[in-house]
Amino acid sequence: MPTSIEILQQYFGYDSFREPQEEIIQSIIEGKDTLALLPTGGGKSLCFQIPALMQDGICIVVTPLIALMRDQVANLKQKNIKAAAVFSGLSYAEIDLILDNAQFGYYKFLYVSPERLKTEIFIERFKNMNVNLIAVDEAHCVSQWGYDFRPPYLEIAEIRKYHPQVPVLALTASATKNVQKDIAEKLAFKTGNRLFQKSFLRSNIKFVARNEQAKYPKMVEIIQKVKGSGIVYVRNRNRTKEIAEYLINNKVSADFYHAGLSNEQRNRKQENWVKNKTQVIVCTNAFGMGIDKPDVRFVIHADIPESLEAYYQEAGRAGRDGEISYTVLLYTQQDIDSLNEKLEEKFPTKTNIRNVYNALCNHLKIPIENGFMLTCNFDIVYFCSQFKLKIQPTFYALKILEQQGYIQLNEGVLLPSRIVFKVDNLELYKFEVAHSEYSLIIKTILRTYGGIIHHYTKISEPLLASKLKMKNEDVVEQLNFLNRQKILSYVPASDKPTVTFLTERLHDDNLHIDTKYFQQRKTVIEAQVYAMIEYIEQEKSCRQAFICAYFGEENAPNCGCCDVCLNKNKAVDLDEDFVHAKRTILEKLADGKWKKLDTIMPENAHFAQQLYKDVARFLLDEKLIEINVHNELRIV
User: Fold this and answer.
1) CA 123 → CA 332, 334, 408, 472, distances in Å?
2) What CATH number is given for 341-414+496-524 in this structure?
3) Beta 194-197 vs 34-37: how paired, if at all?
4) What is the mean pLDDT of residues 37-57?
5) What pTM did the predictor assign?
């Protein structure tokens, strides 16, 4: 068996691991269920890719992020590692063929969206696969205490019974203690499981939260001072364009990005930003997942995120190269009030939820007791206009239906045209003899695309048209004819958002909305919103220490560079008595011995006793001195 470092060097081109990647890999090789909490950009994918490559068999990777699946599959294929992905939007025939190949050992990695785990077509093939690892990305989605709970993740524990000896690796960038515990329970972790947690402290990032009425001019000021590549996050699609235009008018190279754009537009905008042709991308939270750009110098939030989990993940896209970077949250009191008001909006009545569910089924023409695992293109704006529904409440009703396990919403991701031949060489030859007018396109396809007899392969209709000296629409017409004749299977390109029905359409009486769960989710989201607001408004705790404490990392040192730390230091440096007392205490403790505070104060300094106590508390907060159970102090 090759070693982990040999695999790392051979396939990924790195000379050494980041902490604690090697320990995580060893835990998996030992067959232990493992939870890894690594910050955004912390190299999570290597933690399952390397142990999977070290062993015989296939690694099943569960993730809800279709764009991430496609990127990772493409990256693995470039390294001559066989990989495939199964998710909503693929045809039944494509899924069937991919799972066949996975069962017979053709792939090393199979990426699966969580809603696919409960389907019979997946379960029957999964039973017969030689599985070496189940990796669960975005593992916080399994927890009802998490900020993005997804019921299909609960199916992971169900499929474990078919391969009881196979370890599970759960990966996430952000999870509180409650969520960590819930992940282990919901994924049926076995005794002896391991937890690896890298500190949430990002020493190279300066965190700032600023009450700012004039947000747009402040953004320009920040961008001009910091320079380099950056992201501006907003929550409204229209504002992405508005802010980008403002920045452009103020001589900043900027562009906008949101899920409502075509895939071609999104890819172009993303690529220009990654290659530094565009300095600033103004976007919704649809942007950023799976993008590996290490030199992001700043992340600005023009709106308040709904949770510290979401904020930390988005802010963490800055400074992955370890260089000094900035994350700035600009807010107003109106923003805080609006966040509180939206709490009620997030929880529509049962009647509203049922109305949206029935309207959705009618819109997509799904009869009662039909539609199980059906995936349909879905434009929420058009849907709301057709049924005279308000977009925001409708969206929240759909999210409740998703969290209750009835549907799965998927953002639009470009799926290029794909084909595979369905007949053997002899049948193909007979067809060509009988239909000579289609012989040229068949031969051109076979010459242009290797492996197309056995696997669905991406094709380009314009490329075929160019080679055949035909119009694009004529190529499409011929492909459709061959598809109808069952000579090949042709799936045209699509980049539409979709909705997948995880159950058949239910009658009103059977659409159960769990009231207890409903209230529980409300409590969780309220706590997340309140923590986010507290983070913004508080001016006593270091920003990073506050975030670390929220995630259960106690006693994290003050960063010394956030706005709260800098304001504290500034106030201290302006007070001569404070500076003198600080110098005195540090000089008295310079020998490294434990001493009581009253023994290190100067003679006749009893009048300044409170000052020395305040200074000692400040030095303790800054981790410059420490205290023991006898209330004695010592320099660190």
Assistant:
1) 51, 50, 19, 40
2) 1.10.10
3) parallel
4) 90
5) 0.74
